[in-house]
UniProtKB/TrEMBL annotation:
<dbReference type="InterPro" id="IPR001356">
    <property type="entry name" value="HD"/>
</dbReference>
<dbReference type="GO" id="GO:0005667">
    <property type="term" value="C:transcription regulator complex"/>
</dbReference>
<dbReference type="Pfam" id="PF00046">
    <property type="entry name" value="Homeodomain"/>
</dbReference>
<dbReference type="GO" id="GO:0014857">
    <property type="term" value="P:regulation of skeletal muscle cell proliferation"/>
</dbReference>
<keyword id="KW-0238">DNA-binding</keyword>
<dbReference type="InterPro" id="IPR009057">
    <property type="entry name" value="Homeodomain-like_sf"/>
</dbReference>
<dbReference type="GO" id="GO:0005634">
    <property type="term" value="C:nucleus"/>
</dbReference>
<feature type="domain" description="Homeobox">
    <location>
        <begin position="133"/>
        <end position="193"/>
    </location>
</feature>
<dbReference type="InterPro" id="IPR031701">
    <property type="entry name" value="SIX1_SD"/>
</dbReference>
<dbReference type="InterPro" id="IPR017970">
    <property type="entry name" value="Homeobox_CS"/>
</dbReference>
<dbReference type="Pfam" id="PF16878">
    <property type="entry name" value="SIX1_SD"/>
</dbReference>
<dbReference type="GO" id="GO:0000981">
    <property type="term" value="F:DNA-binding transcription factor activity, RNA polymerase II-specific"/>
</dbReference>
<dbReference type="GO" id="GO:0048741">
    <property type="term" value="P:skeletal muscle fiber development"/>
</dbReference>
<protein>
    <submittedName>
        <fullName>ANHX protein</fullName>
    </submittedName>
</protein>
<dbReference type="GO" id="GO:0000978">
    <property type="term" value="F:RNA polymerase II cis-regulatory region sequence-specific DNA binding"/>
</dbReference>
<keyword id="KW-0539">Nucleus</keyword>
<keyword id="KW-0371">Homeobox</keyword>
Amino acid sequence: MERFMAMLSRNKNKDPPPTKLLDLAGQLCQDLQSSSPHLEKLVEAILGCKHKIYFLTNIHIVRACVFVHIRNRQHDTACRLLEYCKAEEKEELVRLWHEIHYQRVMEKHHTDFLTPLQKYRCRKRNPPPVSLCPEGSKSRNYSDEVRQRLHRFAAEVTTNPNKKQRERLAQDVNLQPNQVYNWFANYRRRQKS
């Protein structure tokens, strides 16, 4: 830790900072995960330097910063940091985004865990920003063409297809038979209400 602080002080005006310094910061963030006071001091030093954008390209540093912000109940700051960082591991950044929002909901409801449904609702209410998820959030809906084919089958043939019909239809629309089964079960349920 002292070595890092000395290197940071020596290289505070270098743009960009030496790779050796960035690597050391990433390694320290990994090593200090369980040591809260030291990790907090390290994160404070990294975020306090004028070249912090270079440090925020390392996923270990980003994870440590988010962890410290969550622990200090600075959820908005953690979210802004994720939007601002330039780390390449987008899936990990999205996972951290969701973790921030899970923590926020747990604090609001004074609970230590969330059910899968609560997590799902939390993700729906707080989708990751475009900077983290450039292709957009994944849609769980079928394409218009697939939905039209399924609706047409329900209107013209039956709303309760047998196994053979489901398998043929699944092959035609490029779905799994159980997806077709569930779609028709949901369709019948919607028709009743």
